[in-house]
Amino acid sequence: MTTAAAPVTPPSAAALHDTYAVGYDAQVRAYECYLAEVLFGLSYEYVRPGESLIDLGIGTGLAAGLYARAGLRVSGVDFAAAMLDLCRAKGFAADLRRHDLQSIPWPYPPSAFDHAVCCGVLHFVPDLAPFLAETARLLRPGGSFAFTTQWPAAGEAAPQPVVDSEAGGMAVFAHSPAYVAALIDQCGFSRRKRLRCFVGEESFLAWVVVLEERLPDEQ
Ligand SMILES: C[S@@+](CC[C@H](N)C(=O)[O-])C[C@H]1O[C@@H](n2cnc3c(N)ncnc32)[C@H](O)[C@@H]1O
């Protein structure tokens, strides 16, 4: 008699990210990946000690830790419990929450933070429109948002959307720079900086945008 094989439930996206949490910091160094340092350096002129910052997809806190050392009050959100545990153990984050950033709304009130950072996360998110709109909702006018997107193989003129590749069972999306630039405008941000940076054979765009002051009749 043959028995039917039990259906295999695919691991959740969060569980896949959990699998590389231990050893993540060492791996980032081994890859000579300095995206966190690039975002911090590009956004440094906009942040001040004592201001608040939310790290979207904080992971083990590699980007957030730099802002904490510069005197910002850091909060973080991530859907991978193992990443959050490692970040919590570093002891610099004032508040850490577990939430899937593709599930809108995020668990914070409007205008809760001065600044936001999102390093090495958006290439896991196919549709950036709700993500950028929700980031704008969380920020105070004049606040900065520093983030990375993956550079598409087809370059500047790449169509949108683009599933670029797969990493460890996870789809990787390389968004067209024109699509990202249009969303920045639509969501009420103004673009301040854009820099292409390389990590091994891959490359990313680092963006810094600032939320426009709203006119009284738009509030
Ligand atoms: C490559 S790591 C980057 C971590 C950190 N930002 C850094 O710069 O080191 C990607 C992180 O994004 C998180 N992430 C990916 N998709 C997410 C989602 N939909 N909601 C919440 N977190 C997500 C993963 O759990 C992981 O911690």
Helix percentage range:
25-40%
The geometry reads as: globular
- Portion of residues in beta strands equals 25-35%
Bound ions, cofactors and other small molecules, one mention each: S-adenosylmethionine
Rg: 18 Å
Mean pLDDT: 91
- Work out the helix count: 7
What structural class do the secondary elements suggest? Answer: alpha/beta
Strand numbers in spatial order across the main sheet: 3-2-1-4-5-9-8
Topology order in helix (H) and strand (E) letters: HHHEHEHEEHEEEHEE
Stretches with pLDDT under 50, minimum 5 residues: none
Number of strands: 9
The largest pleated sheet is described as:
7 strands, mixed
How far is the N terminus from the C terminus?
69 Å
Key phrases:
alpha/beta, seven-stranded mixed beta sheet, two-stranded antiparallel ribbon, 7 helices, binds S-adenosylmethionine
Please, could you describe this protein's structure?
The chain is 28% helix and 26% strand. The chain is α/β, with parallel strands linked by helices. Helix 5 (81-90) links the parallel strand 2 (73-78) and strand 3. Helix 3 (35-43) packs parallel to helix 4 (62-69) and helix 6 (128-138) runs parallel beside helix 7 (177-186). The longest helix has 11 residues, at 128-138. It is globular and about 40 Å long. S-adenosylmethionine binds next to helix 4.
